[in-house]
Amino acid sequence: MHEVKPRAQVRPEIWLALAAVGGSFLVYWPYLGNMTEVYRFWDGPNYLTVARTAYDIRRDNPLLAYVYNPSFFASYLPLYPLCVRALAFVGYERALLLVSVLAAMAAVLLFYRLARDVWKLPSPGFLSLVFLFLPPRWLLYRSTGATESLYIAVTLASILFFEKAQVGRASVAAALATLTRISGLMIAPAYGVLLLVKRRYRSIPWLLLIPAGLLGHFVFCAVRFGNFYAYFTPHQEKLARFLPFGFLPVLFERGLYHQVEFHILLALVYAVGISRLRAYPVIFSYCIFQFALHLCLSLEDWSRYFLSMAPFALIVGYRDLIDTRAFRWMFPVFAALSVYYAWGVIPLNGCRPDIYLRLLVYLGLAPPGLAVP
Questions:
Q1: Is residue 111 part of a domain?
Q2: What angle do CA 228, 234, 240 make, to 5 degrees?
């Protein structure tokens, strides 16, 4: 009798990587015949411009029909466009999406490793799968020309290094996060508090690396645009109201009272999720500082800005509710609705088609004959 060998199981990492790519492919499904709809989704055209021109924005750039001042592009931090430029051999437009998809793959694998090996969560594979599809805004931005997936990937890498007591490497990864989205700065005080509590005073100087890259970007802006603080200029008016829920009166003035309720409930959901992270000091400290920052910023797009906390506050924070039979049955419906959400949003929030075609010609990515007069 020949012994029957058990079938080798496919590693969960492979399934999660395939799920990351598959989710984005589903987002692209209606647009496969015309991917321009996806390429021109904001902020893709802006990052395309920065990647192609290296911040050399001339007055004849077609996008200035929207933003008027070349220094506006200083608010687009360099790591994501540098990655796009590095992969531009596949074409700049394709590289916008390729960077996002590859970063999402890296992010889910890092999340899985943290959930399994560091946080010791039950069902780390299922929680990682949920991480890929919820909230819907995350699926949208990890599939388009945006910084979210790259930011989450390098942030998770930083947290993994910090959990291993490798503060230097954690600080380097956090510096990359800060060069992707400025909210990465909050990693420094989050780590600083933990190092002080543990009395690891000699490790604290490593944290100076986190703002160092951003400082370099500000110096570059001073040279390129003549303004050291050019990054903040586009949002100067909104940043002037630095207080909790500071933008809610503006929404009332516009008659958008339904959005007021949405933001209050959103803050509550995240606050409860964060409060349930106390057993995980690193991500708890990280989320506390992120939440405090975004709560005080008078920027009404919280459902996007809160994505920096979503893997922790929503997935880890509500882990016991997610890892249930009822949620497992409901999850395919929510995942499908996330895809449907992306399908509906992409055509509604893009660069105007004629301006985008002129942009491609301006950047040398399309022949002049395609430009619309």
A1: yes
A2: 90
